[in-house]
Design a protein that fits this description.
Structural class: alpha+beta
Strand content: 15-25%
Number of helices: 10
Radius of gyration: 21 Å
Number of strands: 10
CATH topology of the largest domain: TATA-Binding Protein
Oligomer: single chain
Strand order of the largest sheet: 7-8-10-9
Helix content: 25-40%
Order of helices and strands: EHHEEHEHHEEHHEEHHEEH
CATH class of the largest domain: Alpha Beta
Length: 313
């Protein structure tokens, strides 16, 4: 059963821990942000908040989780921010990832350590330090940690978005080593700490009608904006590949309902076999204000684009 707990209830007093002697940076205050699905968030919260309170108590870190309707743009994933001294952050990250490994990835009787991935949210301005000149830094991080590290292209999710996703894949030990190296690299960036001031800025993107994003891969547009004088609404029809319609609709219509609620647009999907002319793409008609249409089509495009990205991996 999923619980919704407001972010303020997750705030904890920062507790100092003994610094690691290897770098001298572990006493510095910093933070990391990464994404969790709703199911993963539920596992980390625990019944009545028991699990997340235990993680905070054991690590000494401060932990904040975005609300149910506050997602990273282009995804249906919530954001968790862990802040404090470096040692505290790494301890909390280890506890969180261990919990997720046990809950979602570990297989009974498996001889090898399970692998998973974590998607860190990093400001565009800080990604250069991770990448390095001609990719030298990120190659070094990969070699030293053994993890697979990829950084999403700038503006992949929405134009003007100030953050990118750094995906770290591997075993728990590999991920934790990579996260440690990335955190230490981010400590060198004097501007990185500013991103802690607004850990979850994306609700504004979703509700204020700002630029939402590109016309995603696999989506075809038909210019049929038809002003309606009565409610000042208009409509467009986009084509979505038949095999991707399920991603737009979601289980039990969940995704479609979410897009409708967040954008304020009305969405109608054509019946099976009713395709846009000359294609095998289903018709998706979006009706509403200009901002509502823009929001809805961008969310749909993002879901299709994320599917295309997974297919290419």
């Amino acid at each position: 059963m999923e619980m919704e707990l407001d972010a303020p209830s997750f705030e904890a007093q920062q507790i100092e821990s003994s610094p690691h002697k290897s770098t001298g940076n572990e006493e510095k205050g910093t933070h990391i942000r990464f994404l969790l699905s709703n199911a993963e968030a539920g596992a980390i919260i625990g019944k009545g908040g028991s699990t997340i309170n235990e993680i905070k108590s054991q690590s000494g870190a401060r932990i904040q989780l975005s609300r149910n309707n506050e997602y990273f743009p282009g995804t249906s994933d919530r954001i968790i921010m862990v802040s404090g001294a470096v040692d505290d952050i790494l301890k909390a990250a280890d506890l969180i990832l261990s919990r997720l490994m046990d809950e979602f990835y570990a297989e009974d009787g498996a001889e090898m350590d399970p692998e998973s991935k974590i998607r860190l949210v990093v400001p565009n301005s800080s990604c250069g330090g991770i990448i390095g000149k001609a990719g030298a830094n990120i190659r070094s991080l990969i070699e030293e940690s053994g993890a697979d590290i990829k950084i999403s292209p700038q503006d992949m999710y929405y134009p003007g978005l100030q953050d990118r996703l750094v995906t770290v894949a591997g075993t728990l030990a590999e991920q934790m080593r990579a996260i440690e190296l990335i955190v230490l690299k981010l400590l060198e960036d004097p501007y990185y700490q500013h991103s802690a001031n607004t850990p979850f800025p994306y609700a504004a993107l979703m509700y204020n009608g700002m630029n939402y994003g590109p016309n995603g891969a696999g989506v075809m547009y038909q210019n049929n904006r038809q002003p309606n004088k009565e409610d000042r609404s208009s409509s467009i029809t986009i084509g979505v590949a038949d095999e991707h319609i399920g991603l737009v609709v979601g289980r039990g219509g969940r995704n479609l309902m979410e897009i409708t609620q967040l954008s304020g647009a009305r969405i109608k999907i054509s019946d099976r076999g009713d395709f846009m002319s000359g294609t095998s793409d289903r018709k998706v008609t979006i009706t509403g204000s200009e901002n509502a249409i823009h929001a809805a089509e961008s969310m749909i495009s993002a879901k299709v684009a994320s599917a295309a990205e997974r297919e290419m991996m």
